[in-house]
Amino acid sequence: MRKKRLSILALVLAAMFVFSACGGTSPSGTSTPTDSSKPDTGDPSVTKKDVVLWNRIFEEWNQEYFQRMGEEFNADPNNKTVNLIQEFVPGDAWDEKMKSAQAAGTAPDTYVQNYGNVIWGAAQGLLQPLDDYVPQDAWDDLMDNVKEFVSYKGKYYAYPQLVEPAIVLFYRADLFEQAGLDPNKPPKTWDELIEYAKKLTTDDVFGLGIPGFGPNVGWATWGWQLQAAGHLALSDDWTKATVTDQGYVDFVNFWKRLYDEKVVPEQPLSDYTEMLPYGQGALAMKLCGSWGLGQLANDYPEILEVTKVAVAPTKDGKQDRTTSTVGGWTYVLDAKARNPEGAGEYIYWLLGSDQKRCADFFKVAGYSKYPPRKSVNDYIMADPEASKNESMKIISEKIVPYAAAEPLYAWEISMEINAALENVILNGMSAEEALKLAEQNINKFIEDNDVPSKKP
Q1: Does residue 95 sit within a domain?
Q2: Residue 134 Ramachandran class (φ > 0 left, ψ -120 to 50 alpha, else beta)
Q3: Is 286 a residue whose pLDDT tops 50?
Q4: In whole angstroms, what is the distance from residue 146 CA to residue 163 CA?
Q5: Residue ranges making up the domain that contains 289
Q6: What is the pLDDT of residues 126-185, one digit of tens each?
C-alpha cells in the first residue's frame, strides 16, 4: 500500500493522522517514507524522524529476525529520535530498484550491501563514511582483517553484519572410521587430502567434492590461489597478471591430481554452494562455504550429527595463513541519506553495541555465519551451548581470522584461472603452458580495458 497524506477536511485529517504517519508496504515491496511520526516517547515535544532501511530477502528465518529487530528498536524506550521503516526487497529486483531510487534521489538512508560492493560504492560516491555516525568503540571491536574489508581511503564505509568463509572442508566422521581414518585428525596437507580421499572413495561414494569448472571455479578457488601463491591473479596496482609463479603452477598441478586420482566426480554432483550430494551420501568430504552447516541442519540433520569441519588443507600443512576468502553482508549509508544520524543510531544498536543482541543472530543462524566483532565472538564462545559447537569454534578461530576479502577486479580475470584449469585437466596442456596463456589473456584484457584506471 502506498502511503498518502489525506488532504480533505481538517477533522478527517486529524482522525487519520496515525494511519498516515505509520506508512506501509505493498505486496511488491514498495514503500514511501513519511516525513515524521510521533510514537509515544514520553515527551510530546519530541518528534521521531524516519530512517528508511532496505533489507534483502534471504531465508524466512532471516527476514523474521530482522523484522523483529526493527520492531524492538522502535519500541526501545532509549530510542527517542528514530522511527525505523524497514522494507524487504527480493534479490532479483534489488539492482533495478536501487538504481532507479538513486537516480530519482529517493534511495533509502541505509541498506544492506555485500562486502564486494562496498569499496566500489565508496569510490563512485554512492556511499558516505560512517565514522561520524557510529561510535568508535564499535570500530575498535572489529577483527583487524574485517576492518580492511570496509575501509576506503582511511574511512569506514560500512559496518559488518556477518562473515561467511567460502572454503571449509566438511567430512563424515563415520565414513572416516569405516575407512580406518581418525576422524579427529583431518587431512592438513594436499597429499593427505588426496590420500584420505582415495581411502574414502568406493563404488557408491566419491572421496571429495570440489567446485566444478565454470563460474564456481572462478570464485571458489580464490582461497586456494592465496594459500598456494600468497597472492591473487593481478598485481596490486592492477597493471599485470601474476599467475605464472611456482605457487600457481603447484596449485594447478594439485587440482589436476584430484582428477587423475579419480577421487572427485568428473562432473560436479551439485553447485558448489549446495550440500545436497554430501547430505545424500554421495560424498565423504566436501568443500563448501560455512553456510553448508545451515543447509545440513535444515535438510540433513542426521548427517550433521556425523559431520566435522576442518581448515582447507595447504601444501605444507601449515594453517596459520589465508585458506579462504569471506563474503557476507554489511550496512551502508547512502551518500544522500536524509537522516544519517538516525541511520547510524540504528546500525550501532543492531550491530555495534550489545553483545547478547548480536550473538542471538548467530545462534538463530545455527552458527553457520560468523561475527565480525571480537567481543561478540568471545561472548558466544563463553556460552556453554555454543562452546560445545566444535564446527563453530574451528571456523571462527582457525579460518575467519586469516580470511581475505574477495578481489575487486573484473570477473573476466578470475575466469582465466578457470580456463587454465580446464586447459590442463581437460585439454592436456602443462600447467606452465596454460598459465602462460592465462597471463597473456589477462594482460591483453588489462590493456584493452585500461584496467589500472578503474582500480578503486
Answers
A1: yes
A2: beta
A3: yes
A4: 9
A5: 167-210+264-323
A6: 999 999 999 999 999 999 999 999 999 999 999 999 999 999 999 999 999 999 999 999
